[in-house]
Structure formats: C-alpha cells, structure tokens
Design goal:
The protein is an alpha/beta fold. The chain has helices at 3-24, 27-30, 38-41, 58-66, 111-114, 141-153, 170-178, 198-213, 231-241, 247-273, 280-288, 290-301, 311-318, 334-349; strands at 46-51, 85-89, 94-97, 117-121, 129-133, 156-161, 186-190, 223-226. It folds into two domains: 3-25 and 248-349, Topoisomerase, domain 3 (Orthogonal Bundle); 44-241, P-loop containing nucleotide triphosphate hydrolases (Rossmann fold). The protein contains 14 helices and eight strands. Strand 6 (156-161), helix 7 and strand 7 form a beta-alpha-beta unit. Pfam families: DUF5600 (PF18150), EHD_N (PF16880). Residues 10-34 form the EH domain. Residues 250-340 form the DUF5600 domain.
C-alpha cells in the first residue's frame, strides 16, 4: 500500500474510526482540534518548530540553516519576530499572510494564527523542510494553545536556551507543558557559548538538563546541542535534512499515538460520567479525586503511562464541564482498537 492509496486509507481510518470517537467524547475540547484534510494531502515536507524566550537565537538559527535572511527577518536589540512565521521554499522571495497554516480550521483561529505569515525563500534546504519561527514566550493562554497545535503538526520541536539564564520562567514552563505530549519530538539548543570555558559549558549543560527534567515527564531529557555549533551544527543540520525520508512513518506513528490518547480520554470520561453527577458537591468531589480514577483506568486496562493526560491540566479543564453531558458508555469504543491495529499494519507496508 503506497502513494495515494496509502494516504487515502490512513485518512479513511481517521475519519471513520478515530474522529467519531473524538467528537463523542469531546476530545477536541480537552486536547487538539480535529486533523485538517491537509494533514493527509499536503506535500510530504518535514517541519520544525522553534520555541524559546527572546534573544536566545531562534531567528539567527533559521539564517544559519537556510544560509540567508528570509523576507522581513529582524535580528538584534529591539522588536524582532512578532508572530508565527513559516519559512518555506519559493522560487521568488516574498512574505504573504497565512492565517490557516498547516490547514488549520477556522475553529482554531486566534489572534496569533490570524497574524501568521508565510515567508518563501529560494533555498535548497527548504525544498524538504519548513521552519516555523516564533515570537518571544508570551503569557497569553492563546499563545500556549497555538504552540500546542503547532507542536502536533511538526516533526521536531527545538527549545532554545541562553546558558547565562538557564532557569525556566513561568511562561516558558507553561509553553513547554502545553507541548508535553510531544516530548519525543523535542531537542534543545543553548547558544552564546563561544566565550565560555569548557567547565562553564558543562555546568550550563547540567543546569539545563535539570531545569527541563522538572517540566517534562520523560526520564531522559531531550538531546542538547551547542548553538555555537561546529560539530553540533553539522549533526543537527544533518538530522533535520533527513527528516523528510520518514515523513509518512512519522505521521502514522502520530495517528497511533492520537488514537491511544483518544481511547484513554474516552475511558476517563466514561468513568467520570457514571451516575451522571449533577450536584455541585459531587462534581467537585470527582474532580478532586480524579487521580484515583486515573489510577483505576491505568491499572484496569494495563495502558501505557506516557499515553495518559497530565492530571493537573485535566482537573483544571474538568472544572468547567457539566458531567451530566458525559457519555456513560459506548459500544463503539473498540473502533479505536481497530484503528490502532490497522495503522500498525500500515507501518509495515509504508515506504
């Protein structure tokens, strides 16, 4: 199963087996919006998302990778990147508005996505790679929400640190937590190391590892690269250039992961909706004791711990929900198991 047949089959699995369960159990209200048609039909280019505080070298990194400036690029003191910018290939250098990047639906549109810009650059490296440059870290909830959406669309997320300030601010922490379900995509770059001694670099390296480990749930922190580069630059650039070779496999992997998350979410919603609690006190009791429900589902169905949602974030979102609207059961829940099985079969035949 290759080419268009492969794409059509994967899209059919999502639309007929995964999406109905997402809608039934309000998956998009707790996690991400439904996948756009473009997810299955756009050209198979890899993509990387750059995230970090201001003055950590995100835009300079873009210039190093593509070998030139992109239209409207600003580096240095004062206002710089002030929106999400998709740097992609084009024979003529230009910048155009793109308020529906990666096929985003109008349902998702916020002030940030509506201001998104596509910058086309005639650089060979961009024929197989799209780079999403971002503004500084903001405290706005919509900013974290948009970051989470972009994190789901891209293949790699690079977090930028300044070794002179490796502590993670509250807003940067919130941004990383918003992307927590995509930890496997994360890499780290820390810049401005050219004037540091080897001992100072190693100390900053350990501090970054420690800071990040406090935010992410995985045992091993993401791989760390020095932004002053040298061999690190060559290795990272080589990795980014090879991403497009396995784009189809990664998309299937992401769909499998999404189906597993949807199943766990459905099981949690069913358990929380049992008895259709309506009294405010009973609702609050179930929210406070969400961890017990979480553990019960985990043990009963022998599910992977990394597929579970963050307890605190789930509790916060549950606080605004009417539990009486939660489904108490679903005869079609096995659709998600069937979808996972079929997608795993696609992995064995996908080039």
């Amino acid at each position: 199963m290759t080419g268009n047949n492969d794409k059509n089959n994967i899209e059919k699995i999502y639309n007929e087996m995964i999406l109905p369960m997402e809608k039934k159990f309000f998956f998009n209200k707790f996690y991400s919006c439904e996948l756009a048609k473009d997810y299955f039909t756009v050209e198979e280019k890899a993509s990387v998302l750059l995230v970090g505080p201001e003055l950590t070298g995100k835009t300079s990194f873009v210039r190093k990778i593509i070998g030139q400036n992109y239209p409207g690029m600003r580096i240095g003191p004062g206002p710089k990147t002030d929106r999400f910018i998709m740097v992609t290939y084009g024979e003529n250098d230009n910048a155009i508005p793109d308020n529906l990047p990666f096929g985003a639906t109008k349902e998702l549109q916020t002030a940030y996505l509506s201001e998104c810009r596509r910058c086309c650059v005639d650089a060979d490296v961009l024929k197989n790679l799209t780079i999403v440059d971002t503004t500084e870290i903001l405290s706005d909830e919509n900013f974290a929400r948009d970051l989470a959406w972009f994190a789901e669309q891209v293949d790699v997320i690079i977090l930028f640190f300044d070794p002179e300030n490796v502590l993670i601010s509250r807003d940067f922490r919130k941004s990383i937590e918003a992307m927590n379900s995509h930890e496997d995509k994360m890499r780290i770059i820390f810049n401005k190391t050219e004037t540091m001694s080897r001992g100072e670099v190693l100390n900053a390296y350990r501090q970054i590892q420690f800071s990040v480990s406090k935010v992410l749930s995985q045992q091993e922190p993401p791989e760390i690269y020095r932004g002053s580069f040298g061999d690190d630059e060559k290795e990272l650039k080589k990795d980014l250039m090879s991403l497009h070779n396995n784009i189809r496999k990664r998309k299937i992997d992401q769909l499998i992961k999404r189906a597993k998350n949807a199943k766990i979410h459905a099981l949690l919603i069913i358990e929380l909706g049992k008895g259709c609690p309506k009294l405010f006190g009973e609702v609050q009791f179930r929210i406070r004791n969400f961890e017990e429900t979480w553990k019960e589902i985990y043990n009963k169905f022998n599910l992977g711990i990394r597929d579970f949602p963050q307890k605190k974030k789930m509790q916060e979102k549950l606080a605004s929900w009417d539990f009486a609207n939660f489904p108490c059961f679903s005869k079609k829940l096995n659709l998600l198991d069937d979808a996972i099985h079929q997608l795993e079969q696609c992995l064995t035949t996908s080039p």
